[in-house]
Every structure is written in C-alpha cells, then in structure tokens.
C-alpha cells in the first residue's frame, strides 16, 4: 500500500515569513500533485510534477519533485493571508498513469496578518 | 468552461437511509473518480470509472456503488447509511489516457451528514 506522509501537520506563521511543507513516501510515484483546499470546498490543483528532480514555480510557490520520485516539497516565499488553507499532496502509481490518487493527510497552513 | 459540478451541495440523512450523489465531469473528460473525505483527513479513493466501466475500487463496503452514464456523468450510491458515512464526497474528472499521468480536477463536493 502506497502512503504519503505530510509534515508538518499544522503550521501557523506571520505574514511575510517563508515556509516549506514536505511530502514523503517509501514508494515511487509516476507523478505527484499538490492541491490547496478551502474549508467545505473541493481541492484545487496547483501543480503536477512528473520528472525526478523537477522544479516548478507558481508565483511565490516553488514545488520540487525528489530525484527518486518518492518525495516532494512546497516552498512558499513571503506568505500572505490568502495562502491560508489545507495543502494536500497526491501521487499516482507508476504501474499505470491512470490509477487513483493516493493522498496525504495534508498540512493546514494559517497565515496571520 | 464549466468545471466539475456536483449535486446536491449538502444533504442530511438518517441512519439506514439511502443516498444518491451526482457528478458531471469537465467537458471532454471521460474518467470520473469518487473520493470520501472525513474531517481532518485527506480524500480516500472509492471508485474510478472510465468509458462507463469500473476501473478501480477502493477499500469500501458493498453498500457503496457507482455508475457512469453515456454522457460521462456519474452517480455514487450509498445504502444503509451509517453515522461514519458522514463526510465530504468529492468527484474528480480527468482526461485519462490522453496523458501519461493522472491529473484530476475536483468538484466542490457534497457534504453528507448522517444523523
């Protein structure tokens, strides 16, 4: 069974600070996606990383896929209150590109103005 | 373009009742997946359908069933509801087969409360 562990589980920071969220597994994934979810709403896709070592940037957010495709990180620069939410990582098995996603439990981020 | 739509938004049922949740995928997407998300957890996979056929099933009891229609919309049915079925039910659509990886787009979810 593939598992994704996210850390930290909770994070509360001041506006303007930097932070990094981690997503780790002992399994290899063919792709890994990051989502942000607001309370009572569905997850919104932020990015998909596919290649080991890949780095993608989305404004103040930087996503990295580990070389071995077993882990990923999300770094936010100069966090803003609008970044508050639940950040979820999810991976796909390398057995098939269309298998269901395995989700981590998420990191709940709170950015205080 | 419309995203994934789900109905109803909220639903309150009592134990033992049956519920049907509906989902319409993004236009052009042929795969629909269902997930259950209980409070404080990440989504858990229930079913995946592609071209009206079941392609995957998660670790859920037989009280859970689903189907996909010719227009690629989908229904999730849950029988004999239990208190533990209270959760946010999410539908996700994907191109499935058009990409070498599984990129899914989620709807807003249906919040089910079982009393």
Descriptive overview:
The complex is a heterodimer of chains A (113) and B (115). Chain A is an all-beta fold and 113 residues long. In chain A, 0% of the residues lie in helices and 51% in strands. In chain A, β4 and β5 form a beta hairpin. In chain B, the strands form two sheets. In chain B, strands 2, 4, 5, 6, 9, 10 and 11 form a seven-stranded mixed β-sheet that branches. Chain B has a four-stranded antiparallel β-sheet with strand order 1-3-8-7, with no helix packed on it. Chain B has a single domain, classed as Immunoglobulin-like. In chain B, β4 (31-37) and β5 form a beta hairpin. The A-B interface holds A 4, 30-31, 33, 35, 40-45, 48, 50, 88, 90, 92, 97-106 and B 4, 6, 31, 33, 35, 40-45, 48, 50, 55-56, 58, 88, 90, 92, 94, 96-97, 99-109, 111.
What's a quick, concise take on this entry?
Chain A is an all-beta fold and 113 residues long.
Count of beta strands of chain B: 11
CATH architecture field of chain B: Sandwich
Specify the number of helices of chain A. Answer: 0
Summarize the amount of helix of chain A as a percent range.
Answer: under 10%
Overall number of domains of chain B? 1
The H/E string of chain B reads EEEEEEEEEEE
Span between termini of chain A: 40 Å
Percentage beta strand of chain A:
over 45%
**What is the overall number of helices of chain B?**
0
**Protein structure class of chain A:** mainly beta
What is the class of chain A in the CATH system? Mainly Beta
Overall tally of structural domains of chain A: 1
Structural class of chain B: mainly beta
- List segments of chain B where confidence is low: pLDDT < 50 over at least 5 consecutive residues: none
Average pLDDT of chain A, rounded to a whole number, is: 92
Strand share of the residues of chain B?
over 45%
Overall strand count of chain A:
11
* CATH topology-level name of chain B: Immunoglobulin-like
